[in-house]
Structures are given as C-alpha cells and as structure tokens.
Amino acid sequence: MAPLLRTLGQVSYSKLEELEQILSVGPLLEPALFIFHISRCGSTLTARALSLNPANRVFNEPTVISQPLFWDKLPSEVQSHVFRCHGLVPESGREQRLIIKFAPFALFRLPRILELFPNVEKWFVFRDPLPVLVSNLLRKASFLDPKRTEEIAWTLGEDPADLSAMREPAFAAHILGRQAEVAARHLNEFDRVLNYRDFPGTLIDGCQQWWDEVPPGVEHTLSRYAKDTSRPFVPDEESKIQAATEEMRSACSEYCDSAWQMLESAIRERLRIARPAP
C-alpha cells in the first residue's frame, strides 16, 4: 500500500501498520454521533452546544476525517481507522463519547459512512434555502473557490465545464440543491432531523441525552454567534432574505425549491409514520 502521509491532530502516520499501532495504544472512544448538515444552518451551534458537556469530545468538520471519504481507492479498513484514531483518549480520560460534525460535502459520501458505521447515531441539520444561499455567497463559502470546481464535479459526477459555466449564485444553489436531495433520499437513516427555524427548542431537546444534565453555560452559548462567540446573536433570517438579489432568488427557485420540497415531503412522511394511530 502506498504511504498515506497524513496527520491526525498531533498524531502522524504514514502506513496502515502505523495506524494500527496508534489504535493499539488505547483506550479508545468509538464514534457515538455524526452530524450532517446543509451549511450555514446552525450546525456549528449544534456542535458547540454538545461540547458543553466535557464528557463529549466534539470535532468540528475535521479535514483529516472528511478527505479520506473521497479517496475511493482507500480500503474501508483504513477509512474506519482514520475515524477511530480521533477517539484516542488523553490522559485526563474525561471524555466518554466521540462526536463528529462533518463538512457539508460529506453528505455526498453518506452511503459510504453508513456502510462503515451503521450503528452510530446520525443527525441532520438544515435551514430554509434562501438564507443559506445568501450566507454562502456574502461570506464566501470555500466550495466557491474556482480551484475546487474539478474536485466538486468529480464528487457530483458532473462535467467540470458545465459547473464552470455557471454564474456563482447558480453554482452555489445547485450544490445546495444536490445536498438537500441526498438528505431527502436518506432521511430515514437520520435519528434526528433539526430545522433551524425550530431552534433553540429542538436543539435543546436533542442535546438532553448528550448533556447528562443541562450545563450551566447553555444559555450563554445559545445567545452568541456560533462562529464568533464575542458577538451576541441577533436573529438574521429577515436580513438575509432582504439581502438576496434577484439573481440569488432566481437561482434558489431554479435549483433549490424542488429539492427542499422533496426534503420537506420526506420529513412530513417520516412524522406521519412515527405518529401513533388514534
């Protein structure tokens, strides 16, 4: 096998044998919860809320975990080891659970993750499409870098020339729509679905089992911007909608609306099935 030459935090490895040696050090936390999301939808706040319990080791979109998911020639044994290395327990031994919040593009590898870890609890976090689109465009998301177009085309199974020809709002909306479609098709694989419009209530409900008891800092965490905790949170749904240009609205309508309808329909069906008969 070719050397992997990757680094896990402060742990370096270059071969499968070295990975296995790392894992033999122990003790080890197996993954307990995976968080998938659309982006700019409250997923960072979700991760921060879960991390309030010191028993939870929470990783926020670790590249070293996400990247190997897209290496098709990498054996599943190695991909599984890469995940598990993040469960190495430090000397304090306080952590009891390993929680990983994936980057949004991990949705496109969801079947692979389900295959590797069928028994890990999985959440999906999302938000109405227009505010998500506006946020990704006004605060440039990394996937909008033209240098990533070929990589993204490979991930989606599309022609790079077609993606390159799209204007930025259409390209971003197309990506979001594809992510929503994946989530809709696999909705029943998620143990919990969190809609940003229902925050903070549904977030607190979901975190209860992972907190053991409500941590003292929860109100402060929920009152700050997740990506800049020095700033008090101000509801921004309306301001994002007002900031949307006609081109953004048109792109959202063309590429996102049907995907979100599919997602909302799957959620309604899920609730209908879960609802006890009268």
Essential attributes:
14 helices; single chain; alpha/beta; 9 strands; Rossmann fold; 278 residues; 5-stranded parallel beta sheet; 47% helix
Please, could you describe this protein's structure?
The protein is α/β, with parallel strands linked by helices and 278 residues long. The chain is built from 14 helices and nine strands. A hairpin with a 2-residue loop joins strand 1 and strand 2.
What fraction, in percent, of the residue positions are helical?
40-55%
What structural class is derived from the secondary structure elements? alpha/beta
Biggest sheet features? 5 strands, parallel
CATH class: Alpha Beta
Question: What would you call the shape?
Answer: globular
The average pLDDT value, as a whole number, equals 86
Total number of β-strand segments? 9
CATH names the topology as Rossmann fold
Query: How many domain regions?
Result: 1
Compute the separation of the termini in Å: 59 Å
Number of helices: 14
Q: Which strands sit side by side, in order, in the main sheet? A: 4-5-3-6-7
Beta-strand content estimate: 5-15%
What CATH architecture label applies?
3-Layer(aba) Sandwich
Task: Spell the H/E element sequence.
Answer: EEHEHEHHEHEHHHHEHHEEHHH
Radius of gyration: 19 Å
